[in-house]
Amino acid sequence: MTLDIDDLRFVMSLDRLGSLAALAREENVTPPAITKRLHQLELRVGVRLVQRTTRRLQLTHEGHLLAQHASGVLDQMRRLEEALHERTQVVAGKLKVHGPLGFGRRYLAPLLAEFHTAHPGVEVQLVLSDNLDLAQQAPHGRDAFDVLVSIGDLPDSRWIAHPIAPNRRIVCAAPRYLSRVAPPALPADLADHSCLVLRENSEDVSLWRFADKAARRGARPTHTVRVHAAMESNDGTVIRAWCAAGKGIMARSEWDVAADLASGKLVQVLPKYRMPDADVVALVPQSRVASRRASLFIEALRKAFKPAPPWRAKGGGA
Fold it and tell me: For residues 91-126, b (16+ Cβ closer than 10 Å) or e, as one string?
Protein backbone atom coordinates (compact mmCIF):
# COMPACT_ATOMS: atom_id res chain seq x y z
CA MET A 1 0.00 0.00 0.00
CA THR A 2 1.38 3.42 -1.00
CA LEU A 3 -0.07 6.78 0.04
CA ASP A 4 1.14 10.18 -1.00
CA ILE A 5 0.42 13.73 0.17
CA ASP A 6 -2.25 14.24 -2.48
CA ASP A 7 -4.09 11.14 -1.20
CA LEU A 8 -4.15 12.58 2.31
CA ARG A 9 -5.42 15.94 1.12
CA PHE A 10 -8.03 14.18 -1.01
CA VAL A 11 -9.46 12.29 1.98
CA MET A 12 -9.46 15.40 4.17
CA SER A 13 -11.29 17.35 1.46
CA LEU A 14 -13.90 14.60 1.19
CA ASP A 15 -14.43 14.77 4.93
CA ARG A 16 -14.74 18.56 4.88
CA LEU A 17 -17.06 18.86 1.89
CA GLY A 18 -19.09 15.68 2.34
CA SER A 19 -19.80 15.45 -1.38
CA LEU A 20 -18.04 14.08 -4.44
CA ALA A 21 -19.75 16.72 -6.59
CA ALA A 22 -18.60 19.54 -4.29
CA LEU A 23 -15.02 18.25 -4.40
CA ALA A 24 -15.22 18.02 -8.19
CA ARG A 25 -16.27 21.68 -8.34
CA GLU A 26 -13.48 22.69 -6.00
CA GLU A 27 -10.89 20.74 -7.99
CA ASN A 28 -12.38 21.91 -11.31
CA VAL A 29 -12.74 18.37 -12.61
CA THR A 30 -15.73 16.17 -13.48
CA PRO A 31 -17.55 14.13 -10.80
CA PRO A 32 -16.66 10.86 -12.58
CA ALA A 33 -12.99 11.80 -12.26
CA ILE A 34 -13.38 12.19 -8.49
CA THR A 35 -15.32 8.93 -8.25
CA LYS A 36 -12.60 7.12 -10.20
CA ARG A 37 -9.88 8.60 -7.97
CA LEU A 38 -11.75 7.48 -4.84
CA HIS A 39 -12.22 3.97 -6.24
CA GLN A 40 -8.52 3.68 -7.09
CA LEU A 41 -7.52 4.89 -3.63
CA GLU A 42 -9.82 2.38 -1.93
CA LEU A 43 -8.34 -0.42 -4.04
CA ARG A 44 -4.82 0.59 -3.01
CA VAL A 45 -5.55 0.78 0.72
CA GLY A 46 -7.79 -2.32 0.65
CA VAL A 47 -10.66 -0.82 2.67
CA ARG A 48 -13.77 1.23 1.99
CA LEU A 49 -13.21 4.86 2.91
CA VAL A 50 -16.63 6.42 2.34
CA GLN A 51 -20.27 5.48 2.46
CA ARG A 52 -23.08 7.33 0.74
CA THR A 53 -26.33 8.19 2.51
CA THR A 54 -29.43 9.75 1.00
CA ARG A 55 -28.26 13.19 2.12
CA ARG A 56 -24.47 13.24 1.93
CA LEU A 57 -21.26 11.30 1.79
CA GLN A 58 -19.70 10.19 5.07
CA LEU A 59 -16.33 8.68 5.88
CA THR A 60 -16.25 5.15 7.22
CA HIS A 61 -14.38 4.35 10.43
CA GLU A 62 -11.30 3.62 8.34
CA GLY A 63 -11.81 6.84 6.39
CA HIS A 64 -12.00 8.87 9.60
CA LEU A 65 -8.86 7.14 10.86
CA LEU A 66 -7.02 8.04 7.66
CA ALA A 67 -8.24 11.66 7.77
CA GLN A 68 -7.23 12.01 11.42
CA HIS A 69 -3.69 10.79 10.79
CA ALA A 70 -3.50 12.76 7.54
CA SER A 71 -4.03 15.95 9.51
CA GLY A 72 -1.01 15.26 11.69
CA VAL A 73 1.18 14.18 8.77
CA LEU A 74 0.35 17.30 6.75
CA ASP A 75 1.07 19.50 9.75
CA GLN A 76 4.46 17.85 10.23
CA MET A 77 5.24 18.31 6.52
CA ARG A 78 4.32 21.97 6.72
CA ARG A 79 6.53 22.49 9.79
CA LEU A 80 9.43 20.77 8.03
CA GLU A 81 9.02 23.04 5.01
CA GLU A 82 8.93 26.09 7.26
CA ALA A 83 12.07 24.97 9.08
CA LEU A 84 13.92 24.52 5.79
CA HIS A 85 12.81 27.93 4.53
CA GLU A 86 13.95 29.57 7.76
CA ARG A 87 17.38 27.96 7.40
CA THR A 88 17.76 29.57 3.98
CA GLN A 89 16.13 32.85 5.11
CA VAL A 90 13.78 32.52 2.13
CA VAL A 91 10.14 33.50 2.57
CA ALA A 92 8.27 31.32 0.11
CA GLY A 93 5.22 29.15 -0.34
CA LYS A 94 1.51 29.95 -0.66
CA LEU A 95 -0.13 32.57 1.57
CA LYS A 96 -3.90 32.13 1.50
CA VAL A 97 -5.80 35.01 3.11
CA HIS A 98 -9.53 35.46 3.67
CA GLY A 99 -11.16 38.80 4.40
CA PRO A 100 -14.48 40.66 4.26
CA LEU A 101 -15.48 42.01 0.85
CA GLY A 102 -15.44 45.78 1.37
CA PHE A 103 -12.58 45.87 3.86
CA GLY A 104 -10.62 43.42 1.73
CA ARG A 105 -10.94 45.49 -1.42
CA ARG A 106 -10.00 48.72 0.31
CA TYR A 107 -7.19 47.59 2.60
CA LEU A 108 -6.13 43.94 2.19
CA ALA A 109 -5.70 43.92 -1.59
CA PRO A 110 -3.20 46.83 -1.75
CA LEU A 111 -1.40 45.61 1.36
CA LEU A 112 -0.95 42.14 -0.15
CA ALA A 113 0.40 43.71 -3.33
CA GLU A 114 3.04 45.51 -1.24
CA PHE A 115 3.74 42.29 0.68
CA HIS A 116 4.29 40.39 -2.57
CA THR A 117 6.70 43.07 -3.77
CA ALA A 118 8.71 42.66 -0.58
CA HIS A 119 8.52 38.83 -0.73
CA PRO A 120 8.23 37.81 -4.42
CA GLY A 121 8.75 34.16 -3.52
CA VAL A 122 5.36 34.05 -1.79
CA GLU A 123 2.34 32.95 -3.84
CA VAL A 124 -0.51 35.16 -2.64
CA GLN A 125 -4.15 34.13 -2.77
CA LEU A 126 -6.86 36.49 -1.45
CA VAL A 127 -10.43 35.24 -1.00
CA LEU A 128 -13.06 37.86 -0.16
CA SER A 129 -16.49 37.05 1.24
CA ASP A 130 -18.81 38.40 3.90
CA ASN A 131 -20.06 34.90 4.71
CA LEU A 132 -17.60 32.57 6.35
CA ASP A 133 -18.31 29.66 8.68
CA LEU A 134 -15.18 29.24 10.80
CA ALA A 135 -16.36 25.82 11.92
CA GLN A 136 -16.10 24.59 8.31
CA GLN A 137 -12.56 25.84 7.79
CA ALA A 138 -10.08 22.97 7.78
CA PRO A 139 -6.84 23.98 9.55
CA HIS A 140 -4.66 21.72 7.38
CA GLY A 141 -4.10 20.94 3.73
CA ARG A 142 -3.98 22.99 0.58
CA ASP A 143 -7.50 24.36 1.07
CA ALA A 144 -6.71 25.89 4.48
CA PHE A 145 -6.44 29.64 5.02
CA ASP A 146 -3.21 30.84 6.58
CA VAL A 147 -4.77 34.06 7.86
CA LEU A 148 -8.41 35.08 8.24
CA VAL A 149 -9.00 38.80 8.73
CA SER A 150 -12.19 39.24 10.72
CA ILE A 151 -14.21 42.20 11.96
CA GLY A 152 -16.22 41.89 15.14
CA ASP A 153 -17.02 39.01 17.47
CA LEU A 154 -15.08 35.74 17.31
CA PRO A 155 -17.56 32.85 17.18
CA ASP A 156 -15.00 30.04 17.35
CA SER A 157 -12.37 29.61 20.07
CA ARG A 158 -10.29 27.27 17.90
CA TRP A 159 -8.71 30.34 16.30
CA ILE A 160 -6.03 32.58 17.82
CA ALA A 161 -6.80 36.28 17.38
CA HIS A 162 -4.07 38.84 16.71
CA PRO A 163 -5.38 42.41 17.27
CA ILE A 164 -4.90 44.60 14.20
CA ALA A 165 -6.92 47.80 14.60
CA PRO A 166 -9.73 49.32 16.70
CA ASN A 167 -13.07 49.75 14.98
CA ARG A 168 -16.42 50.95 16.29
CA ARG A 169 -19.92 50.25 15.02
CA ILE A 170 -21.71 53.53 14.38
CA VAL A 171 -25.42 54.15 13.91
CA CYS A 172 -25.96 56.82 11.27
CA ALA A 173 -28.32 58.26 8.69
CA ALA A 174 -28.33 60.83 5.90
CA PRO A 175 -29.44 64.42 6.62
CA ARG A 176 -32.17 63.83 4.03
CA TYR A 177 -33.73 61.09 6.16
CA LEU A 178 -33.35 63.00 9.44
CA SER A 179 -35.06 66.05 7.91
CA ARG A 180 -38.25 64.00 7.51
CA VAL A 181 -38.38 62.33 10.93
CA ALA A 182 -37.56 63.04 14.55
CA PRO A 183 -34.09 61.59 15.27
CA PRO A 184 -34.13 58.76 17.81
CA ALA A 185 -33.26 59.91 21.33
CA LEU A 186 -33.10 56.44 22.85
CA PRO A 187 -32.19 53.05 21.37
CA ALA A 188 -35.80 51.93 21.85
CA ASP A 189 -36.88 54.69 19.44
CA LEU A 190 -35.24 52.78 16.57
CA ALA A 191 -38.22 50.42 16.56
CA ASP A 192 -40.24 53.24 15.01
CA HIS A 193 -37.71 53.99 12.27
CA SER A 194 -36.87 52.52 8.88
CA CYS A 195 -33.62 50.62 9.38
CA LEU A 196 -31.21 49.21 6.83
CA VAL A 197 -29.88 45.78 7.77
CA LEU A 198 -26.80 43.96 6.54
CA ARG A 199 -27.51 40.23 6.35
CA GLU A 200 -24.35 38.29 7.25
CA ASN A 201 -23.87 34.61 8.09
CA SER A 202 -26.53 33.34 10.53
CA GLU A 203 -26.43 36.29 12.93
CA ASP A 204 -29.61 37.88 14.31
CA VAL A 205 -28.87 41.11 12.46
CA SER A 206 -32.10 42.94 13.33
CA LEU A 207 -31.40 42.79 17.07
CA TRP A 208 -29.26 45.84 17.89
CA ARG A 209 -27.51 46.15 21.25
CA PHE A 210 -26.20 49.29 22.95
CA ALA A 211 -24.37 50.42 26.07
CA ASP A 212 -24.12 53.94 27.44
CA LYS A 213 -21.25 55.79 25.77
CA ALA A 214 -19.76 56.54 29.18
CA ALA A 215 -19.46 52.82 29.89
CA ARG A 216 -16.01 51.30 29.65
CA ARG A 217 -14.93 49.81 26.37
CA GLY A 218 -16.21 46.27 26.03
CA ALA A 219 -18.96 46.74 28.62
CA ARG A 220 -21.98 44.47 28.28
CA PRO A 221 -24.88 46.02 26.34
CA THR A 222 -27.69 47.32 28.53
CA HIS A 223 -30.15 48.35 25.79
CA THR A 224 -31.57 45.94 23.21
CA VAL A 225 -33.99 46.79 20.43
CA ARG A 226 -35.54 44.80 17.60
CA VAL A 227 -35.36 47.11 14.59
CA HIS A 228 -37.66 47.08 11.58
CA ALA A 229 -35.64 46.04 8.53
CA ALA A 230 -37.22 48.27 5.91
CA MET A 231 -34.48 47.20 3.49
CA GLU A 232 -31.75 44.60 3.78
CA SER A 233 -28.88 43.25 1.71
CA ASN A 234 -25.87 40.99 2.06
CA ASP A 235 -23.66 43.74 0.56
CA GLY A 236 -22.41 46.49 2.86
CA THR A 237 -21.78 48.83 -0.08
CA VAL A 238 -25.45 48.59 -1.01
CA ILE A 239 -26.54 49.34 2.56
CA ARG A 240 -24.30 52.41 2.70
CA ALA A 241 -25.64 53.67 -0.65
CA TRP A 242 -29.23 53.27 0.52
CA CYS A 243 -28.40 55.12 3.70
CA ALA A 244 -26.76 58.00 1.81
CA ALA A 245 -29.88 58.17 -0.36
CA GLY A 246 -32.00 58.79 2.73
CA LYS A 247 -33.71 55.41 2.92
CA GLY A 248 -33.18 54.90 6.65
CA ILE A 249 -30.83 54.32 9.57
CA MET A 250 -27.96 51.84 9.45
CA ALA A 251 -25.29 50.46 11.78
CA ARG A 252 -21.94 50.24 10.01
CA SER A 253 -18.29 49.87 10.85
CA GLU A 254 -16.29 53.00 11.54
CA TRP A 255 -13.78 52.07 8.82
CA ASP A 256 -16.57 52.22 6.23
CA VAL A 257 -18.35 55.45 7.23
CA ALA A 258 -15.71 57.69 8.86
CA ALA A 259 -15.15 59.70 5.67
CA ASP A 260 -18.89 60.17 5.08
CA LEU A 261 -19.35 61.32 8.68
CA ALA A 262 -16.47 63.78 8.36
CA SER A 263 -17.88 65.24 5.14
CA GLY A 264 -21.44 65.50 6.49
CA LYS A 265 -22.81 63.04 3.95
CA LEU A 266 -23.91 60.96 6.94
CA VAL A 267 -24.75 61.96 10.51
CA GLN A 268 -24.29 59.88 13.62
CA VAL A 269 -27.47 59.24 15.60
CA LEU A 270 -27.74 58.16 19.23
CA PRO A 271 -24.33 59.71 20.06
CA LYS A 272 -24.84 59.03 23.78
CA TYR A 273 -24.84 55.28 23.16
CA ARG A 274 -22.39 52.83 21.63
CA MET A 275 -22.79 49.46 19.97
CA PRO A 276 -20.31 46.66 20.74
CA ASP A 277 -16.96 47.35 19.10
CA ALA A 278 -16.02 45.43 15.97
CA ASP A 279 -12.24 45.45 16.10
CA VAL A 280 -10.18 44.14 13.18
CA VAL A 281 -8.31 40.93 14.04
CA ALA A 282 -6.19 38.41 12.17
CA LEU A 283 -7.02 34.77 12.94
CA VAL A 284 -4.78 31.73 12.68
CA PRO A 285 -5.74 28.16 13.63
CA GLN A 286 -4.98 27.30 17.24
CA SER A 287 -4.07 23.77 16.18
CA ARG A 288 -0.93 24.76 14.34
CA VAL A 289 1.95 27.21 14.48
CA ALA A 290 1.64 30.09 12.01
CA SER A 291 4.04 29.89 9.07
CA ARG A 292 6.78 32.48 8.73
CA ARG A 293 5.02 34.08 5.75
CA ALA A 294 1.77 34.28 7.75
CA SER A 295 3.57 35.81 10.73
CA LEU A 296 5.26 38.37 8.48
CA PHE A 297 1.94 39.27 6.87
CA ILE A 298 0.26 39.73 10.27
CA GLU A 299 3.14 42.00 11.28
CA ALA A 300 2.68 43.96 8.04
CA LEU A 301 -1.02 44.29 8.89
CA ARG A 302 -0.21 45.68 12.32
CA LYS A 303 2.26 48.21 10.95
CA ALA A 304 -0.20 49.35 8.28
CA PHE A 305 -2.75 50.35 10.93
CA LYS A 306 -0.39 52.04 13.38
CA PRO A 307 -0.16 54.42 15.14
CA ALA A 308 -3.80 54.93 14.15
CA PRO A 309 -5.89 53.22 11.45
CA PRO A 310 -6.68 55.29 8.33
CA TRP A 311 -10.23 55.94 9.48
CA ARG A 312 -8.87 57.72 12.59
CA ALA A 313 -5.54 59.02 11.34
CA LYS A 314 -6.95 62.40 10.31
CA GLY A 315 -9.79 62.69 12.73
CA GLY A 316 -12.17 60.80 10.53
CA GLY A 317 -13.57 58.61 13.31
CA ALA A 318 -16.81 59.49 15.07
Answer: bbbebbbbbbebbbeebbeebbeebeeebeebebeb
